[in-house]
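Might you be able to review the protein record set out just below?
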Amino acid sequence: MGFELHIIPAEIDEKAIGDRLSDRPEELVLEIGRAKARAVLDAARREGKSEYLLAGDQVVVHKSKILEKPANKIEAEDFIRSYSNNVCKTVGSVILVDISSGKMVEGVDCAEVHFKDIPDQIVHALVNDEMCLNCAGGLMVEHPLIQQYIDRVDGTIDSVMGLSKELVLRLLRGLQSH
């Protein structure tokens, strides 16, 4: 997207924020994204290298359940196996803050991934890669092993992967127009 990035990790307890049992994953990812933005805003101001702060969060919704990063390989395997011949939905938030003024804009983008049958050997290979442990719902549509088992994506791949470019640019235009 043509931006210079400076990464400041947000040291927050994400599990302590929001309601994972509700049917409102959009609100959950916004709450966590806001908490991340608040946690790093002062550091971003001190650093003085950036005009804007971008924070966000993502979950996967599958069978009416909110899935976050798997706790371990067993949970990752359960998540990935459950996507076979099924649909899951990604819900991702973007929080943009003008660092000097503190003005904040936010939004949510969703996408659906429709899967074909995923063979057990593919599930095992994905889990053994361990990268899935860093992804909401263990979902890694960009992984070469899973791509042939994706029937279709309703939405954009960048949204499924955690950051909707379209949403970021729309929010940035809104922030700049004020």
In short: The CA atoms of residues 58 and 92 lie 4 Å apart. DSSP finds five helices and five strands in the chain. The chain has a mean pLDDT of 93. The first helix runs from residue 25 to 47.
